[in-house]
Write a structure and sequence with these properties.
764 residues, globular, 45 strands, WD40/YVTN_repeat-like_dom_sf, disulfide bond, 5 domains, alpha+beta, five-stranded mixed beta sheet, Sema domain, immunoglobulin domain (Ig), short basic domain, secreted, (semaphorin) 3bl, differentiation, binds 2-acetamido-2-deoxy-beta-D-glucopyranose, ligand-binding face of the semaphorins, domain 2, neurogenesis
């Protein structure tokens, strides 16, 4: 039954996702495109594979610090310079060998994988690495702002136990504040002791008790200090993690995502919970979509968290990527949480279970004072009730805290639904950063989402006018890394308008926007719907609010160029090119027309005499993603074909192609003339002939149905691998032939319009 429900909701999600062309990115930029337009630059270390495992972006010093396998880098982020310095940092002598002896892998485990890079004081960073399963930390001198110092005293190394995990592959989260380090990790060799730690600084080390009620196989994703109000005594450190959900009861292996927190001024209890957290509480983070029969589909596994900080430092927006853990289908969602909702859950009832045979419910008894989860502060430290420190808390409070760490009410996302859902996609969503961008009509949160295949999606989610339905617009899909590789870290720099994208292969610095890419016309700029960009009267350029420029055209919400660009000179929209294509009677012919945006739909008109009609499509005349295909050309097909794209209510003429149909005798005559060797090389002609043959073969395979791609047809027919390979190689040959035909044509372009010799014009 459960499986059935999942399947149903999966189907629902799938149909929702495929129903619209809008899930297709408006612009796809390849690795080459990004490099050639200076949109992206890559650093991949000086010694082959960098095995990047830690990143710290230092906006104050204009430096990017990287940690990898036995290595640390410092990159200067000057406007021109890209100077780098490195520190070789292997495990301590003997540790690599010891690690190998315990049966660990010499390459992927028995090295010093740097997991932590945090600013420590005005001149030093704190760096910690796995040290071949012997965690270690060191201070790195990075100098003051303006100088490029990067040194480490190899003798001044201390134990990193409790600061980073032993195993380089284990999840881990940390936050550094007030000279103290907060970590969520497994702190032992075997990776079983899951714990939230506080270390360094003057106070004694704090940790969670070993108790599955508190933490049950947690996978830590992020940790952040977030103040509650102006009283610093109320500062709290929040941990975001996924763990086994005890309260889910009978459902074996079910997991929930949590937000947990401790008070920064927690020093543990006096008699109970000595040096253990006395303020730790946690609540569930829900991210789900409604399914059929009122059963929601839950995204339970947390993948990444980004805190979108605003002027109000107490109330950042929490963006989180989730995935499903179902075997039935793989889906991803982005949910956004407000701090107010998180605090409300923590102020609500505690979850309670009377005994093994009871149901979980809200605790309805008397909660001791000070309420567990509340930090000792001026409020709790009143005459007669002097609780100035957690050491003053009564034992009853500590006992209650220990037995009731979970809140009863979960935290729901803003608007009670994800801002983005993706299912049935050939990649995974891994990392997220968000930029709040000022636009003409308000601000937009632009999400940059890193996938496991080396791409970054730039996405905005718009809430529909009066409906709750979200409209998700994928503005760009950027292939940041040359080969598919999982993106493991992302840092955004609003200051330099760039995002730093990390993968095992290296780090890419990618600009947040490049408005020129969208095109040279007002309409194209407007259709892009990119909050960073606007039409300034002559080009698509960066939109800057408060600028004196009078002329700014932008329409993110509707992308309606008809309204925005109506007074723009018509030449702006005229991206047409007039062409002539020759086809032979009874043979096939192709009129090419590909819109810049994959979201646009194309219609074809044909002009004969003074009439313009829409082209009638059937088995013989087919509209494909690449253009108009005549499987058999008739004499009456002659005419001027107009390719029109339509996107968001805006229509644009992309091309005008005059089709001339050659009849038998003319063709024979031409062939004869050609064969006499009047001009062309034999080779070029052979290429033309060959391409025609392949094309016909492909057409035979496709058959009469109106399907754009051989591949797609193949999938539909469940054809076997062998056949698919055959089609693939055929397509490849077809493309090669097309290429040589193009070369041949350009060689003869001079006489192209006079002599109808280009018989194989389908790739024009
Ligand atoms: C990219 O940067 C290089 C060096 O700064 C410059 O010469 C080149 O013109 C730039 N290319 C583009 C497309 O902006
Ligand atoms: C920063 O910390 C390092 C390591 O403890 C210490 O050597 C250095 O003097 C400190 N610098 C400042 C400016 O406090
Ligand atoms: C297609 O054109 C070629 C070359 O002109 C000719 O040999 C062939 O018979 C034509 N095919 C049809 C179906 O007319
Ligand atoms: C095309 O086919 C028609 C009917 O089959 C035939 O009458 C005509 O001669 C053919 N033309 C050429 C050039 O093959």
């Amino acid at each position: 039954m459960k499986g059935f429900t999942l399947l149903c909701s999966a189907a629902l999600l799938l149909s929702a996702a495929s129903a619209t062309k809008l899930n297709v990115p408006r612009l796809r930029l390849s690795y080459k495109d990004l490099l050639s337009t200076n949109r992206s630059s890559i650093f991949s270390g000086h010694h082959g594979q960098l095995s990047l495992s830690a990143v710290f972006l230092d906006e104050y010093r204009d430096r990017l610090f990287l940690g990898g396998k036995d290595i640390l880098y410092s990159l200067l982020l000057g406007p021109t310079s890209s100077e780098s310095k490195e520190i070789y940092w292997p495990p301590l002598p003997g540790n690599r060998e010891d690690c190998i002896q315990t049966g660990k892998d010499p390459q992927t485990e028995c090295a010093n994988f740097v997991r932590l890079l945090q600013p420590y004081n005005r001149t030093h960073l704190l760096a910690c690495g796995t040290g071949a399963f012997q965690p270690m930390c060191a201070f790195i001198s990075v100098g003051h702002r303006g100088e490029h110092v990067f040194t480490m005293d190899p003798l001044n190394v201390e134990s990193g136990r409790g600061k980073v995990p032993h195993d380089p592959s284990f999840p881990f989260a940390s936050a550094f504040s007030g000279g103290e380090l907060y970590t969520g990790l497994t702190a032992d060799f075997l990776g079983r002791d899951s714990v939230i730690f506080r270390s360094m600084g003057g106070r004694s080390t704090m940790r969670t008790e070993t108790d599955q009620k508190l933490l049950h196989d947690p996978k830590f994703i992020a940790a952040h200090l977030i103040p509650d109000n102006d009283d610093r005594d109320n500062d709290k450190v929040y941990f975001f993690f996924t763990e086994k959900a005890t309260e889910a009861g009978d459902r074996e292996g079910s997991i929930h995502t949590r937000v947990g927190r401790v008070c920064a001024n927690d020093v543990g209890g006096q008699r109970v919970l000595v040096n253990k957290w006395s303020t730790f509480i946690k609540a569930r983070l829900v991210c789900s979509v409604p399914g059929p029969h009122g059963i929601d589909t839950h995204f339970n596994q947390l993948e990444d968290v980004f805190l979108l900080r605003t002027k109000d430092e107490r109330n950042p927006d929490v963006y989180a990527i989730f995935s499903t853990i179902s075997n039935v289908f793989q889906g991803f969602a982005v949910c956004v949480y407000r701090m107010a909702d998180i605090r409300e859950a923590f102020n609500g009832p505690f979850a309670h279970k009377e005994g093994p045979d009871y149901q979980w419910g809200a605790y309805e008894g008397r909660v001791p004072y000070p309420r567990p989860g509340v930090c000792p502060s001026k409020i709790t430290n009143q005459p007669g009730r002097e609780f100035g420190s957690t050491k003053d808390f009564p034992d009853s409070v500590l006992q209650f805290a220990r037995s009731h760490p979970l809140m009863w009410r979960p935290v729901f996302p803003a608007l009670r639904q994800p801002v983005l859902v993706k299912a049935n996609i050939p990649y995974k969503l891994k990392q997220i950063v968000v930029d709040r961008v000022e636009a003409e009509d308000g601000h937009y949160d632009v999400m940059f989402i890193g996938t496991d295949s080396g791409t970054v999606l730039k996405v905005i989610a718009l809430q529909g006018g009066n409906s709750l339905e979200m409209e998700v617009v994928t503005l760009e899909e950027l292939q940041v890394f040359k080969v598919p590789t999982p993106i493991t870290s992302m840092e955004i720099s609003v200051k330099r308008q760039a995002v730093f994208v990390g993968s095992p292969a290296g780090v890419a610095q990618v600009k947040l926007h490049r408005c020129e890419t969208y095109g040279k016309a007002c309409a194209e700029c407007c259709l892009a719907r990119d909050p960073y960009c606007a039409w300034d009267g002559s080009s698509c350029s960066r939109y800057t609010p408060n600028s004196k420029r009078r002329f700014r055209r932008q329409d993110i919400r509707h992308g309606n160029p008809v309204l925005q660009c109506v007074d723009q000179s018509p030449e702006d929209l005229d991206v047409t090119e007039d062409k002539v294509v020759y086809g032979t009677e009874n043979n096939s012919t192709f009129l090419e027309c590909v819109p810049r945006s994959p979201q646009a739909t194309v219609t074809w008109l044909v002009q004969r005499d003074d009439r313009k009609d829409e082209v009638k499509l059937d088995d013989r005349v087919m509209s494909t993603d690449q253009g108009l295909l005549f499987r058999r050309l008739f004499r009456h097909d002659e005419g001027v074909y107009i390719c029109r794209s339509r996107e968001h209510g805006f229509t644009q003429v992309l091309g005008r192609i005059t089709l001339e149909v050659l009849q038998g005798e003319t063709v024979d005559e031409l062939m004869a003339r050609d064969n006499a060797g009047l001009s062309d090389s034999f080779k070029d002609r052979a290429a033309l002939g060959q391409s025609r043959t392949w094309f016909k073969d492909i057409m035979q395979l496709i058959g009469p149905s109106n399907l754009p791609h051989v591949e797609e047809y193949c999938e539909r027919m469940w054809c076997n691998d062998k056949l698919r390979r055959k089609h693939k190689s055929m397509l490849e040959k077809y493309r090669q032939a097309q290429e040589s035909a193009r070369k041949a044509r350009s060689k003869n372009s001079g006489e192209r319009n006079r002599t109808p010799r280009d018989l194989s014009a389908w790739e024009e």
